[in-house]
Design a protein that fits this description.
- By secondary structure, this protein is mainly α.
- Helix 1 packs across helix 2.
- The longest helix has 14 residues.
Length: about 130
Amino acid sequence: MKRGRPKAELVVTDDERAQLTSFARSRSLPASLSTRARIVLSSADGEANTSIAARLKLTKATVGKWRARFIERRIAGLYDDVRPGAPRSIDDERVATLIQTTLHTKPANGSTHWSVRGVAAETGISKSSVQRY
């Protein structure tokens, strides 16, 4: 006899399963997103929340949270929500320029790598902001 509240059924489409499997195996995505994908895949395979939690070394509440978020919002629910706080002072284009400069150019002074101060001066972004990215 089952105990507790009945869980909403979690069913994934073939496309979602392929994407979740890719997330779970990825070494370039944040670990949190890979873990969430593993939670959803295990739930879709019928594994109980308690065994998923024990296997992934998480709490039952965490497993339940991401399971429910997936049911409600699908793949988009696995990403972090925007948190309150001051808006970013640097837009995505300037961050992309910073990354492009750092990875694909060399400083004019003959060095082989950019220093924080050098790339900050080159891109016009403050040194403290450069250190965050």
